[in-house]
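Think of the structure tokens as a kind of shorthand, similar to the way a musician reads notation: each symbol stands for something richer, in this case the local conformation of the backbone. In the example below we present two proteins back to back. Begin with the first one, reading the sequence and then the tokens, and try to describe in your own words what changes along the chain.
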Amino acid sequence: MIASASLIMKYYPIFLDIEDRPCAVVGGGEVARRKVEGLVACGARVRIVARNLTERLLALRDGGVIEHVPEDYSFAAVAGSFLVFGATDDEDVNGRIAADCRRAGILVNIADDPKRCDFILPSVCRRGDLTIAVSTGGKSPALAKRIREELEDRYGEEYADLLEILGSLRGPVIARGLSADENREVFTGLLEGGILEAVRRRDWDEVRRLIREGTGEEPTLPCRS
């Protein structure tokens, strides 16, 4: 059944793999710096287009982490990019970036201008490989930040440790050739059996016991243990 128009979301929630993909940021200020650091953290190949850069961006350039095109915006400087961020303080330039990228089929985000964005960035809570993203559809970044801070209080570093443990067990359990439902029962049993609480207490003896009893596997514990 197709959802009615009133139920259709404006944005499709998705996590993108941008490792080794070319991404560009136009602008050299603090907003651009945040965009660049987020892209670098995900392994993108980042090009920044701006005449002047903040000290942090200069350090990234001088360290060979990002490529710098020291000139005013032109489409040639961002052509071939997978994603483009417009982060200048010139509305006309930002408008050109959005129009050029959309004509070329390049996903574009213009800072603080949702109407010119193909995508928006959520407020993110990270705990190791656990990522919880919060979006208000661009209506209230302040509310998204508030909710993200509440999530950070709720989900501590024990979730990073737990996910590392569960990830190490996934391969051996699946290799047994059991059905998907049976595999799900194994991991549900661990979670309902108190493994999170044991990890939170850093009671590694109890963690080992729960894993051995629940899976028959010898656990690999996080290096932080």
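Once you have a description of the first chain, move to the second and do the same.
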Amino acid sequence: MAKTSKVVSLSINNIQNYWGLCKPKVVLMLLITATVGMQLASANFIDIKLLLIANLGIGLAASSAAVINHLVDVNIDALMVRTQGRPIVSGKVSNINALFFALSLATTSMILLTFYVNTLTAVLTLFGIVGYAGVYTMYLKHRTSQNIVIGGLSGALPPLLGWTSVTNQIDTGGLVLLLIIFIWTPAHFWPLAIDRIEDYKKAKVPMLPVTHGIPHTKNCIIIYTLVLLPVSLLPFFINMSGNIYLVSAILLGLWFLYSVLQLKYKPVSRSAMQSFYVSIYYLLGLFSALLLDHFYRIFLTIS
């Protein structure tokens, strides 16, 4: 009986290790934005079968890219405090098993998206895997301080993938959603890079605070946040969203801007991480407002 319990315990731990490789919190955020993209591309409510299959395909692809990121970054992860406990670094998952796991996730994703959603979404999703796991992780991350800016395109794809899952074409609405996340990404990530600057120095990763200093990085965060304000209003100006979204986007944008201004002019010990978390809540709030506004417009249409 004790031996059986030990086997079960080891099995559960193994599942948790593979689950951790997938970066589930990051994938969840990507799926939220993908779901909003699907709903905004639909005149009415999304077909539940399409919603589930498309999200499963997109989620598996994002998880595959995350696993490859763990594999490629194993040496620098071993040097950074926040990543030293990751499954591959700690030896809980072998390199070959992680690679097989990543390939299995990617292959399943491509099969689901190609045969049950559409080829365009499958191709764009594959582009996202290659962009994040290959171009960003293997090259940009170690070559330029603008790594997160250029590589951010891959992370901005999910709402467009959601959009194309429904429409099978690239439209203005989907591109606007992509643009919002593309502009948001540097302002979201650089506060984290400021907080973990010593880790990045140790690992010799040329993040912007390492190469250009913290004051310059704070200025760049403010610039991207200011640009994000008008960009976030584009859904209203192209008539994709209405007044509920407009008011929400303005208030959320001002809150985000206030946070990064505090980081620049009145910093305290945890200001960088506070701005980082505000950026997450900002994006969740923005996409929730898009969804709420869309449902309200559907309700007005059918009532």
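Compare your description with these statements about the second chain. Residues 5-10 have pLDDT under 50 and may be disordered.
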